[in-house]
Write a structure and sequence with these properties.
The protein is mostly helical. The protein is built from five helices and no strands. The protein binds heme C.
Length: 129
């Protein structure tokens, strides 16, 4: 059994940000998945692309591997996407029209700090491999 409850794990993560450079990739990956779950991102997003739904409707949100692929050649994507996560996607200038459902991403600033959002975005942008 895992020794930490999720809330404990993310509290530990935040306390250890200065040491994250020493975390192994697997530890960092586990911590980022937990953070994304704790912050509600996984209610809409998935890591891997989802198969088409039985009812024919598109997924709620793009998978993060698809996001990583789309922005792989954009060196400032991490900055733009951190802003998008904090303030929400502009409903008039959506980037995933036709590939996801009609609802756009609401602001997440009430649940996540800019630093946490930046860590998540930096992590999800390299999920392309
Ligand atoms: C209520 C559902 C919902 C939640 C919760 C949510 N997202 Fe999103 N997200 C979306 C949708 C829908 C889009 C596609 C927006 C568009 O078409 O531009 C999106 C797009 C994105 C993108 C790509 C933006 C772009 O311009 O291409 C990133 C990165 C992202 N979300 C990260 C996150 C993170 C990190 C969290 C958690 C803090 C989160 N999302 C929470 C629905 C959600």
């Amino acid at each position: 059994m895992h020794p930490f409850r999720p809330a404990t794990l993310s509290a530990l993560l935040l306390a250890t940000i200065p040491f994250m450079a020493q975390a192994t990739p697997a530890e960092n990956d586990a911590a980022m998945r937990q953070l994304a779950t704790d912050k509600g991102c996984m209610a809409c997003h998935s890591i891997d692309p989802k198969p088409p739904r039985a009812d024919g409707l598109p997924p709620i949100a793009p998978s993060w591997r698809e996001v990583a692929l789309k922005y792989r050649d954009d060196p400032v994507a991490y900055r733009k996407l951190t802003d998008t996560v904090m303030t929400g996607a502009d409903p008039k200038a959506r980037h995933w029209v036709g590939k996801t459902g009609a609802a756009t991403m609401p602001p997440n600033a009430a649940t996540i700090s800019a630093e946490e959002a930046r860590m998540l975005v930096n992590w999800l942008l390299v999920l392309v491999r």
